[in-house]
Prior knowledge:
The chain is α/β, with parallel strands linked by helices. 41% of the residues lie in helices and 23% in strands. The protein has helices at residues 46-53, 80-86, 98-101, 108-112, 114-119, 125-138, 144-148, 157-169, 187-204, 215-221, 239-244, 249-256, 260-268; strands spanning 4-13, 23-30, 35-39, 62-70, 73-74, 91-94, 175-179, 207-211, 224-229, 232-238. The strands form two sheets. It has a six-stranded mixed β-sheet, with helices on both faces. Strands 2-1-4-5 form a four-stranded antiparallel β-sheet. Helix 6 (125-138) crosses helix 8 (157-169). The longest helix is centred in the last third of the chain and has 18 residues, at 187-204. The structure holds adenosine-5'-triphosphate and magnesium ion (MG). Adenosine-5'-triphosphate (ATP) is lined by residues 13, 15-16, 22, 40, 42-48, 61, 213.
Amino acid sequence: MxxxxxxxxxxxxxxxxxxxxxxxxxxxxxxxxxxLGLVGESGTGKTVTAMCISGLLxxxxxxxxxxxxxxxxxxxxxxxxELNRMLGSDMTxxxxxxxxxxxxxxxxxxxxxxxxxxxxxxxxxxxxxERALEAMRRAGLSDAEEIYRKYPHELSGGMLQRxxxxxxxxxxxxxxxxxxxxxxxxxxxxxxxxxxxxxxNHNDGMTILFISHDLRVVRRLCSHVIVMQKGKIVExxxxxxxxxxxxxxxTRHLIEAIPHRAKRLNEDE
Length: 269
Ligand SMILES: Nc1ncnc2c1ncn2[C@@H]1O[C@H](COP(=O)(O)OP(=O)(O)OP(=O)(O)O)[C@@H](O)[C@H]1O
Ligand SMILES: [Mg+2]
């Protein structure tokens, strides 16, 4: 059984035109251990797809249809309570805006531990802290003890993004959904986060859905890639095949848009 099966997913926001589907019939699956890159131009439905999978799309804002099975459980049939139980243990999501994801009044450590309060209630305070520190170190926050005590406004954007990742991996989820998490970061930190994701995948078997505009990063990181255009999938395959033999004009344009030097460097690897 696939870890994730999305079947004919359609989403139409209530305030959109009657025939405008933010997601217009998307189907794909992910096996355990896959790193799937979801790419495509802005407004094409990537985030909305991620929100559906994680059960975060507000029901009162949009009509949706189709099916999303996570490890055999139909997400669309889950109650709020069931979703809360799954979110944080079976899957976690990291979005682009760490500033708005953290609550300014709580210390970082408390927020990294959040998932443990919900999903591993029997841990002692010391055990929770140890797990949080471990997740923070893995996310590249080497002075974890110090950062544990800090407030969100005391950290740089890059550090906050890593703290977000720490919060997302502290419960060892089966599926990590990362939506544009490297986009706002400089290249060095970007590279460190890519290495972290590869490490989580290789050593912990974590399955990752990686949403990005950056085809270069997708090429380095992802085993599979899906290209979306206007709410539909136009390309789906193993990364090396999609890059070597793009089927769709849109994908060819995307690949051609990768800066020449970067393309050459990648090919030399
Ligand atoms: N809360 C909302 N209310 C109404 N329409 C929305 C809402 N969120 C997204 N949409 C619409 O859904 C479509 C898909 O948006 P989505 O955010 O999934 O794009 P995206 O591929 O993630 O783009 P980007 O690369 O810019 O993040 C867009 O047409 C957008 O206007
Ligand atoms: Mg988006």
